[in-house]
Amino acid sequence: MKKQILIVGSGFSGMWAAVSAARLADLEKGHDLKITVLAPVPELRVRPRFYEEKVSTLVAPLNDLFAELGIAFIAGSAERIDAKEKTVFYRDANGTTSSAAYDKLVLATGSQTRRPAIAGLADFAFDIDQLESAQVFEKHLDSLVARPSTAARNTVVVCGGGFTGIELATELPARLRARFGEDTETKVIVVERGAVIGGRYSEALRNTIEEASKSLGVEWRLNSEIEAIDADGVTLKNGERIPSSTVVWTAGVEASPLNQQIEGERDNQGRLMVDESLQVPAHPDIYATGDMAHAKTDDVGNTALMTCQHAIQLGKFAGHNAAASLLNIEPYPYRQVNYVTCLDLGAWGAVYTEGWEQEVKSVREEAKKIKIAITNELIYPPAADKTVAFAAADPLAKFV
């Protein structure tokens, strides 16, 4: 009977885990492995681009790739994990509950926006965290055109000045002009609890973000927190009132709640602590990867971030190691020493940095070309060609 590797999730980490596991199985001729991906739909949703327009196009089908590599697919949403019985229970599109057994399980269900208990947040704030919510936000922007031109209609408040908030805020001036015309005065305001713009970044990167924000007319409210959100705007804890018909929440993410069913230590983002093989120590038959895993990237104290850059490599190592464990092959310790940042800054351009110290290497048009190459090409699935896909899935091959 074939040994079962079950991968839950078809995002960056889940997709690459499946391809990497299939690669090692192919190298070991005569293997007895079956690799299965369980996810709602067989597609990669290009989440890093959800701040852009035409979000419905930002998906990549995986059917042909999986068929070419002999990867099975189950359409369903995982709901319960029985680690003792090595079984995952899932619900399909018709609401029917079924189960899938595994010998090795790879958890790759990603992350979600963290939504604190703020008055009105659930009812009045948009987000671009998932494809469906980003589509709702885009339709809302389209609907504003039919409304009278008021300060509230023409103002968007972005709650949170992290990576997603910055990319969305700097893209929004162009998106609003495309709808309202060049002559309409619009505002984009970022509400950030930190004392400086881009507080988690290097000084050079912070300065670049500030320069782009000023050039684009993006305003920042620093040292500020949201008290309440309603249909007409937001109220800050300092008492300031910002009229707005469009409030977008981008402040923080946390690991998918599915991993709460697994015994193990977690970090403050809900990610499972894993060893260097990406196994959950309390459950050696379970691997956590992508945004589900708190993993060391090197020997000097850095850990993987919740980005597709890290998710892709984590997936390759997790898939390889899950297959290796069933083929009696030594696993690869996860390492990802190189780190880059490429931040889209809308019509101003972009900024590209290298290293954990975030040394700025290029800005504006030059950096924009790098950003487009990454998000429009590099992070997409490989071609449905076994040679090409397996070469790309080698965990030891250079990614960036």
Automatic annotation (TrEMBL):
The cross-references to InterPro entries, in alphabetical order and at most eight, read: FAD/NAD-bd_sf, FAD/NAD-binding_dom, NDH-2
- Tell me which domain of life the UniProt entry assigns to the organism this sequence originates from: Bacteria
Q: Say if the entry is tagged with keyword Transcription regulation.
A: no
Q: Which top class of enzyme applies to this chain?
A: oxidoreductase
The UniProt entry, under Gene3D superfamilies, shows: 3.50.50.100
Domain FAD/NAD(P)-binding per the UniProt entry, residue ranges: 4-313
Q: Which GO terms describe its molecular function?
A: NADH dehydrogenase activity
UniProt keyword list = FAD, Flavoprotein, NAD, Oxidoreductase
Q: Name one Pfam family in it.
A: Pyr_redox_2
Q: Which SUPFAM superfamilies match?
A: FAD/NAD(P)-binding domain
Q: E.C. number, please?
A: 1.6.5.-
Q: Which family does it belong to?
A: Belongs to the NADH dehydrogenase family.
Name of the protein: NAD(P)/FAD-dependent oxidoreductase
Q: Which organism is it from?
A: Enterobacter soli
